[in-house]
Structure formats: C-alpha cells, structure tokens
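Note to self: keep these together.
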Amino acid sequence: MAAAARSTDRPGALEITRKLAEICGAPFARFAGPADEVAGRTARWVAVPGGPHAAAEVLRLAAAHDLTVVPRGAGTKIDWGAAPAQVDIMLDTGRLAGVWHEPQGSAVAEIGAGTPLRAVQATLERTGRRLPVDAPSPGATLGGVLAADEAGPLRHRHGSPCAQLVGVRYLDANGELVSVGEPGTALLGRAGPARGGAAALFGAAEVPGLDVARLLCGSQGGLGVLVSATMRVQPVPAGRVWVSRPVWTPLEVHDLVRAVLAARLDPAAVELDLPVPVPLPRRRIPASHPSVANRPDHPAVTGRPVRPAAAGSLVVLLEGGPADVAERADRLAALLGPEAVVNHAAPDWWGRYPFAPGDTALRIEVPINDLHAAVYALRDAAGTPVPVRGSAGIGAVHAALPGSLPPDRVASILAAVRGVLLARQGRCVVVSAPAPVRRAVDLWGELPTLPGLRTAKAHLDPHHRLSPGRLPGGL
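Structure:
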C-alpha cells in the first residue's frame, strides 16, 4: 500500500486528480485509500462519474495518460479472481444507477450498472414483476453480477443472468459508448443449465456484434465497462413452495436429483446443502432418564439403532399459480418419500455461499450425473468433509476450504479434484482465496478457450488498460 500511496506523489498525479474532479465533481474524485483494493492491489485514484458521458471522459483521460482502469460496483466480489497487474483508476459505478424504460407491462427494463440488485427487484415488484436473477452476494449491483456472471438458485430454470440480457450499453477501452441490441430484441437464447460467462464464450470465432454482450458477462471488467443492461423481466410468481428432504450421501443426492428431473415437475431450482457435520457426543442415555422416560419409542428404550443425523438437505423450489404449485408439491413430496417436508419459506442457507471471508472458495461445474463423483473426490483430496452448496440440478456448486490451509496443500487438492473432473468434462475454479494461495495456485485450471480469450482481449482492449491481469492467462 505504501508503494501505491507514493505513486500519487509522482509528477502529474495532482493534475490527474484535478482533471478527474472536473469530470466527476470534486466530491467524487480522490486519491485512493486503504479500502480501495482489488484482490489486494491498491488503486491510485477513485472516480465516481455521474453518468455515462462522464464515465467515458474518465476512460479517455486514462487512455491519454496510459493509465489502467478497474470498474467497481458494490465491491461484494472485488476479491474474486486474480489480482490485477495494476490499478490506476478505480471507476466506481455507484452513480450509474436507476431503472429506466420500464413501463408497466413491459417485458424488459433498462437498468443502470451501478444499481443494487435489491433496489431493482423492489422497483419492479411495485408493478408485479421481477428479474429472474437471485445472485447470492448481499448488496451486489447488477453490473457486478453480470461482470462476474454470478447466479443463484434460479439459474436452474432461467440460466445465468446473462441469459436475461436483451441489450447492453458499455464503454470500450478508448471511452467510446457502444450500444448493442435494442429493448425487445433478444440477443441470447435461453441459456438453460449451460455454463455462461466470458470464459465459456471466448472461443467464439466472431468477437464484434451481438456476441460482445456475452463476452462482457464474466469478464470482470477486462473487456469493457458496463453502463447499463436491458434485461428481461417477468411477473412475480403467485405461488412459491420449497420441498426439502434430508440427505446422507452424495450418491443419494445423485439418485434423488435424477428422480426429480425425470418427474417433469418443472422446478425453478434444485439446491443442495452439504455442511460439515458436527460430531455428537457418544453418550448413552439410560432409559430412566427424564428426557426419554415418557417416550417408549425412543431408541434408549427400544434398543433399536438410531439413524445418523442427516449430512445435508436437498431442496426443490416450485413456482407458479397457487393451485398448480400445490398439486406439484404433493407429487414431489410423494416422490421424495415420508421425510419430505413442504415449506412456504426458504431454508436459512438458501441463496448463500458455503464459504466465508478468508476461505479458499471453489466453484465446481460438472454434468449432473457426475456431481457425486466430484464431491467424493473433493472429500478424499481434502481428507475431511468439505462444505458444498449449490445447484445440484445443473451440476454447479461451490465449496470452501479453510483459509488456514497452506498454498501447497490447496494446490494438491486442486490437482486431485481437477484430475477427476477432467475425465468427466468438469471444471474446478478458485473463486477467491487468501493472497498467498492466490499467488501460488492456478486459479482457472485447463481452459481450452484461452486462445479465443486472447483474441477477444486483443480486439476489445489491445493496450490492456481495462482490469489487466484479471482474466485467465494474465490477460
């Protein structure tokens, strides 16, 4: 940080600050502070432009002085991925906010990149609509969600947030404002369970045109600065229920998920939670103990064995009309057996990541028939149960390794898991990690589309001014 602070004392630093203040307004341009970091890399300046044209001026200033620019929304995922090689200007999108062009009954809405997703949903809800997007990061902006291609449980039915795009406005590396698509004209077909994001799409032969919208998704600001997105909206479902069932093993999850999908119940989400089990004391309770004296069916009285506490939960969300949802919930409960429970509220863990700040967070993507193999491989490599949570219905889950693990231990776990996934057309990506781990391990693993990514970067940001080093391959 000291080096970053000294860099602002170099000749010309005050002049850059003055010009940023002219563009954004004095209260919205400043030297960066200790909190203005991107995966541990401290910025030199922070600029908060008041609109698209001001943001374009910031990028033109950066181009004129050969400065790098890294966009920031709410900062909920600022430590995800690789650290940038350099952060000169952190472009805060907080003032690029608002929900525009969304008359009642419209099937689309244009939304500023800096708008918190919660605010978008609250605004749309007043007219009985929603974005079918439920990113887990609390406080995340729409731009941040798209830049990370962050998806929650609803990805099962609706795909990633990028599947809901029908248009974007973004700034290229030279500060030119580019509009792609028009409201009402779909850029992308429904993505379904396919993995979205830039990493999955950089293999496209054509970079210009409508594919740019998809390239921006998951690019961490490395290909353009998103100004606004025109998104599909839909009516808020009148009925929602969560049908849950305890599960004991990953193989059991595999069988249950296959049964749920084969039943054609049109689930909105199929989520799995496998927390680290808490060992219970092995203390025998005498039959005369007050806690069981009036329970003749208790194992302490009957002598029958106790089924172990469940290792986790499989929960299926059903949405639609109230009568239709109730009928499907009854069918699903019968399918899952007597331990199934129908609830009108989501479990506490729903839509949350299994990792905490400081953990090494992993994302595993694998065909659903091999999800159990991936979980077993992770457990075997770690030598202990590892918390796993996510969309079992499409084979996309997150896991957490303790932040205290040495980097070489994390590297060996990754190598073992990736070896198992490689034969199953799966991937394991390090989402975030402590700095020593981030520097020591391969965050991305094998990426066949890397040549296409290089082509895209060379076309859209040839001077590597936008979030340099944030993308795979150090791009």
